[in-house]
């Protein structure tokens, strides 16, 4: 462990703001990749204790409020990252406190006045997704099983880091771009390449279709919950026989909170977790669209010049180990897709088995779905 200490100390300093917003971005970029590599095998062994895998105990919190709080963090962090200036000057605690105060909340909307259309569309798309995920889904979902306290706490950390890096990635210090650099992209903020515009709109089309599919299939599950909720539960009385998932069960052991989604509803004809597939496609399209931006999403040309000069009023040279990754497959949009697949893949597999175990093999084979997420593959 001794050789790692200097690097870990460097990451700690960056997270504390000693290397400005650029150093913070770089440190979070590395931590998100590390989180993905660690979380994937853990999720193959342990099912995150929420939803159908939630087990009520003294560490449990409301599923509804826990979900709302942990998901609303992402758009807030995104707006902070979007409006963050590119600097390597140390961030003082007073600066961080001031930026987080309600008196300066209007600064979070400042980027929307100067971002070119392509970046603005990507910013709005991110906010639309999380408005649905945090607010709309909380309102539409009739009930959520209690979740372990560790779930919202870990999700808050992840959504904060992911939202901030994505915000900085889309913003990319665009306000600092000089007139000479503007020749490298068109009025919409796209690279002056023959493929850029087609790639952007192809990506955004995939994103929109993924979002619509995600909303539709979530609504199918919400409708099933409303239909299967016992009248006693609707009046506020407690269900009689709790199952291991925390839902009420009948004498046959079938969950009253969940039902087998009918094959007549959209992609449920093929897979048991179409919302997962829809979300993967959504963020894959988002990533493809981001690759068409000009200047390069992050660091932009302005950011590169800033880093060479030190950046900020009291510039601090950025160590080589903290230079932002430039490879397209290590950018926040790509890492987000990787994280989604790595974490949701094992959960979908467990969920598929849960359906068969809960409702019985015979009924599952008669009414359930053959595939887990990808038709004809898995």
TrEMBL record:
Region ranges (Disordered): 227-260
GO cellular component labels: membrane
One GO MF term attached to the UniProt entry: oxidoreductase activity, acting on the CH-CH group of donors
Domain (3-oxo-5-alpha-steroid 4-dehydrogenase C-terminal): residue spans on this chain: 252-304
Cell compartment(s), UniProt: Membrane
Signal sequence extent: none
Annotated keywords: Membrane, Transmembrane, Transmembrane helix
Superkingdom to which the source organism belongs: Eukaryota
Low complexity compositional bias, start-end: 238-252
Segments traversing the membrane: 31-53, 65-86, 118-136, 156-177, 198-216
GO-annotated biological processes: lipid metabolic process
Membrane topology term: Multi-pass membrane protein
Family according to the record: Belongs to the steroid 5-alpha reductase family.
Protein name: 3-oxo-5-alpha-steroid 4-dehydrogenase C-terminal domain-containing protein
Organism placement in taxonomy: Eukaryota, Fungi, Dikarya, Basidiomycota, Pucciniomycotina
